[in-house]
Design a protein that fits this description.
The chain is an alpha/beta fold and 230 residues long. The chain contains 9 helices and 7 strands; from the N terminus they run αβαβαβαβαβαβααβα.
């Protein structure tokens, strides 16, 4: 739910940013910008056409992200929201991931692109987009790349507070009566700074609440074993 909230928050902010940036800078003429027309009637403002591109993983990789994007597209229509999916094995298919994101900028009506989760390759994709279409707003949700790196290319980066959740999860488990906490992950995730810091806090919190902390390793779903193996 937090990932879904992050995605929807990013989309809502994008709508606001795109709407603010779509105003006309043309000087006022009779019959425009609220001035009376020769007939005395008040003309309607011309409709600004724009689209938003949303890139997520597949249903098997991150179902909540994908379903949230589909729900948003259903709400606003396919003529306004375009969806794309990065490869399940994004670590091995880096070029495909980058190209999937960049391809959205081919549509001249695309004014914002959101990548949630911002898997490896998102930073490079955003840089390529900015080179060809600096008018596009680039938003990263839950970055898998270093925050200063993705921040150098994105207009906005939205991340859950993974570090604080390290304590809150353990405290909640303690309140529910748990005496052992098992954290299951894999080396790629553990190499992320936010993940490793969260695990360290979880371990310390377990000591504080008198709980046993167990760290287990599972197969990485982006390797040859796939999601089913993991």
């Amino acid at each position: 739910m937090k990932k879904l909230f992050c995605l929807l928050l990013a989309v809502a902010m994008t709508l606001a940013l795109v709407a603010c940036g779509s105003g006309s800078n043309q000087p006022s003429q009779p019959g425009q910008s609220g001035q009376p027309s020769p007939t005395g009637s008040q003309p309607s403002e011309p409709e600004q056409k724009f689209k938003i591109g949303i890139v997520t993983g597949s249903v098997s990789q991150s179902e909540d992200d994908r379903r949230g994007a589909e729900a948003f597209q259903q709400m606003y229509g396919e003529d306004m929201v375009k969806l794309a999916i990065y490869p399940d094995n994004f670590t091995e298919e880096l070029e495909t991931t980058i190209q999937t994101i960049v391809n959205l900028s081919d549509d001249p009506d695309i004014k914002a692109i959101i990548v949630n989760q911002a898997v490896p390759g998102t930073t490079e994709a955003f840089r390529q987009i900015k080179e060809r279409r600096p008018d596009i707003i680039c938003i990263a949700g839950e970055s898998h790349e270093d925050l200063p790196e993705i921040g150098s290319a994105a207009d906005l980066v939205c991340n859950n507070d993974f570090v604080a959740r390290g304590y809150l999860i353990i405290r909640t488990a303690h309140e529910l009566g748990c005496d052992t906490f098992v954290h299951i992950s894999f080396p790629r995730h553990m190499s992320y700074e936010t993940m490793s810091r969260r695990v360290a806090i979880m371990n310390a919190a377990c000591e504080e609440f008198g709980m046993k902390f167990v760290l287990e390793t599972a197969p990485d779903p982006t390797t040859d074993v796939g999601v089913a193996g993991a």
